[in-house]
Each structure stands twice: as C-alpha cells, then as structure tokens.
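Q&A log
Question type: sequence-to-structure
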Amino acid sequence: MTTLFGMEYRDSMKIIADQNIPLAEDCFSSVGKVTLVDGRQITPELVKDADSLLVRSITKVNKDLFEGSRVKFVATATIGTEHVDQDYLASKGIGFASAPGSNANSVSEYIVAALLALGKKNKFQLMGKSIGIVGVGNVGSRVEAKCRSLGMKVVLNDPPLQRQTGDAKYHPLEDVFACDFVTMHTPLTKEGPDKTFHLADEKFFASMKDGTVFLNSARGKVQDETALKKAMQSGKLSAVVLDVWETEPTVDPWLLQNVDISTPHIAGYSFDGKVVGMMMIYHALCRHFELKAEHTVRDFLPAPEVPEIRIGKEQLDSDEERIIHDTVQQIYVINRDDFNMREILLQPENEQAAWFDGLRKNYSVRREFQNTTVLLADTQNSLAKKLSGIGFQIGAL
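Response status: OK
Response body:
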C-alpha cells in the first residue's frame, strides 16, 4: 500500500472537505480520513492539523487561514479561483488545483432553460434574436454554441481573448449593448485593464438598448446592484435573470421580488458537473501525493431518471421552441428553483442567509441533457438539430 510520512496513507492523511462537494467522503476516503464541514465554518483551528483542504467558492483561502498549519495541498471544486490566494500557496510550497470547465455545460444548460422559460412567459421566439455574451471561456463558449443551435445571433465580447488571438469574432461592448439579451460569463477580477468587479454598472446598463434582457450567472459582484435596480425601475430592462447576487448569501429583497427568474447560485450545480469537478481535484490530489487513483467518474454517476423522451408525430404540430421548452422541462424545471428561491422572502430577516445556503446545500439531483435520448420520427429535421445542439442525444422513434 502507498505510504505517506512512513505510514499507510488512509490512516495518516487528514482531509478537510466542504460538505457541499458531493460524494467527497465516498471518493476521498480511498486516500485519507475525510472530515466534512460547512464551507463558511472552515477556520484556522480546523485546518491546523490537516494535510489537504477541499473547498468551494464560499471559503477564503489565504494566509489568515493557513498560518501555522501543516496543509500541503488545496483544491477548489469550482472553475473560479478568486477566493484562493494562489501566490501565498505557491510561496509556502502548497499544491493547488481547481476544476476549470467542470460545470461549464451545466451553466450553459441553465442559460438555455432560462431563455426558453422567458420566451414562454413573455410570448417571444428566440429564433432570430441577438444575444451578447460577455466572457467567452469554458462557459461562454458553450452558451455560444447552444444559442447558435437555437437560431440566435451571437455577439461575443472577451477583451483578453481578443488580444491573445486577434480574432475579429470578438466584439467591443458597444456591439453587445445593441443585443436583445446580454449574459455575463466572466470571472471576478478587481484589478487590471479587464477588471470585472461592477463591470455591469450604471454606464453599462444605460448603454443598452431599451428592452434588453439581462442575465448573470457568473459572479454577483460583476453587477452593481444599485445600478441594476435603477435600470429595472426605469424600464430599461424588459427582464432579468439572476443566479448570483452581489451580497450573497444575503439577497436584496427588492431584486428578489422583481427579477423574472431568481436562483441561489446553482447554475453550475448539475450532478454531472459536480462529480466531474470532484474527480478533477481527486486526481490532482493523487498526483500531488503520488498516490494511486482508485476512482473514475463512472463510479459516481447513476443512471439518469429520464433516459428517453419520445416526441411523436402528433406533437410536431406545436411550435418548435415550445417543444424544446417542454423537452428541457422534463430534465430541468428552472421555475422550481425560482419558486424555492423566492421563499427566502417568507423567512425572518436574520434567517434568510441561512435559507440561501440551505438551498445550495440541499439542492436536488439535476442531470445534464446529454444523459437523455430524444426519440423522433425524423432525426434529420430542424427540431432534431436544435435538440442535439443544446446537448440531447437523438434517436429514431
């Protein structure tokens, strides 16, 4: 058996893990003793004797947390890393890993579900509408592909990628402001020429054409909520979808009442994405400590609850986008997340933040579209291409 510090590693390695990392104990117990804790309750005292720390975005990882500890490896099961002081970790020789791209497909499916729900609610077609995507990394590029599949016109904005590639497909923000929809997919950065902190500020919203739909599933502090409320109150925006909130887990009650779709920072919370993220940091930990990885993704992904959806000829008389909406609803009911989120307003003020965290901690299993095959009489028509484009498998009926 592999050893660590001259002892069997299962008995010697102490791992502290955020309890919101699914199956963390089942997976990481193959390499050490796992203690699950609330991510907001990870303290210097708790990690002092730990060898490894596994977190999500709510835990600040820095000198204050680690001074005097023996931690040798840190991983975050998220794509964002702004909550981790990587320079400090490097200065102390502490290994680090994240999970870039792990929940990108989940977020892009969330955006598709939100757009379809808005279309049904407000009686408009997505086909032919324009959408500006601010941030075209792992998430934004998948949003682009899915929106194109739905027949939308896509305008991309990503200054760092534009400088790196010189590709003319990246447009200035002025072009984004002319779109029917604007969706944010940037990391949170507070310094430099491309800082995104309060990128969506008063000037940003004022520059949009009247009636724009605004979506943010990136980071709450990318939006200035005072400016956002002003834009909503003025009638500048026709609809707003928020998965992230500037002061979360505390949420502005006026915003929660008045946005069209509200969710508790769960756009990336598909079960598939969580498992992929967990496995990415599991393998990184094994590499760091030169341990044999005993698990793969397949060990933790169950069979889908909805393996097939049948769309018969009689259903094809309906509008295509309505069919797509109804198909997506069988996998992910975004309105249910919205309903649960709004129950925050029914809680005493001093319990609302805990309710927000509870919605995330107890989030139900949500599988990605790729796990479901849609059976159609014609697998070559435009409906089949659109369903395939947003992630479903297609089969013959």
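Response note: The longest helix spans residues 104-122.
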